[in-house]
Amino acid sequence: MFVSTKRLDKLLNPDGFKLLFSNKHTKEICFVRNSRSNSLLYEHLLISGQGKLGEAVYAETIVAVVRNFPVSKLVAETDDHELLYELETDKERHWTLLDSTNDAKIWERRLANVASLFAERNAEKRGLGLLTRLSRCIADITNYRKLIGDPFSIFDREYAYFMDSSSADRNEAERIAANTFVLNWAYDDVKLACLILVKYGTEVEQKSEPWRDVKPLDSPENLHPKILLLSDYISSQRTIYENL
């Protein structure tokens, strides 16, 4: 891929973007920053390439309530190709063809010049609607977080936390986690999030065993986004914990 992660990181860092993900096989690079329009939002910048050398490149911005990548549409909104159209040189396929490293450097500078503006514009345009759509889930996850208290205390004895839970809760959490498809997300974070949802579900949801026999994919407005929100929170807290 002619586009360079290292060069992009240097160009985008002044605007607050941090490298989140880079995969030379899928030819995807993702940067993220805290949204400037709302503290509950994250602004993602996704660069994609196609072709044997990644000659065809394009980019899009995504506003989300989670930091992790890839971002599910359940908890995010894309920019409806606005950045893609801004950068395109091929009006039919809406991408830019790169034939050399020099072409890539030019495209990278063009992207860096407008990335912050388009990310902020997307957040302002679609962020409020996203928060409104997920307001119930966000409020409920806040309650789950209050009930578990300091997550560091869980990380200190995570295996014991699982084993101290009832076998019924563990089995239900593992069932839900196994049916949650989140490519590249840490499975330990997803499984812990599912256990917390099961342990405290009756109290937060005000319904006895609210997740019994429920599959995440069959609950796109309730269970599934809550798994993503809580997993993302656990992931961010685990990163802080591991770097203490």
Describe the model:
- The protein is of the alpha+beta class and 244 residues long.
- It has two domains: 5-131, no CATH class; 135-242, no CATH class.
- It has helices at 5-12, 82-87, 101-133, 135-148, 151-156, 158-164, 167-178, 187-205, 223-242; strands at residues 18-23, 28-34, 42-50, 56-64, 76-78, 96-97.
- Strands 1, 2, 3, 4, 5 and 6 form a six-stranded antiparallel β-sheet that branches.
- The longest helix is centred in the middle third of the chain and has 33 residues, at 101-133.
- It is elongated.
Percent of residues in helices comes to: 40-55%
**How would the global form be characterised?**
elongated
Mean pLDDT: 95
Q: Topology as H/E string?
A: HEEEEEHEHHHHHHH
Q: In DSSP terms, counting alpha (H) and pi (I) runs of 4 or more, how many helices?
A: 9
Please identify the structural class as seen in this structure.
alpha+beta
The profile of the biggest β sheet is: 6 strands, antiparallel
Question: How many distinct folded domains?
Answer: 2
The residue ranges in which pLDDT falls below 50 over 5 or more consecutive positions are none
Rg to the nearest angstrom?
A: 20 Å
In total, the number of strands is 6
Strand composition percent: 5-15%
End-to-end distance:
36 Å
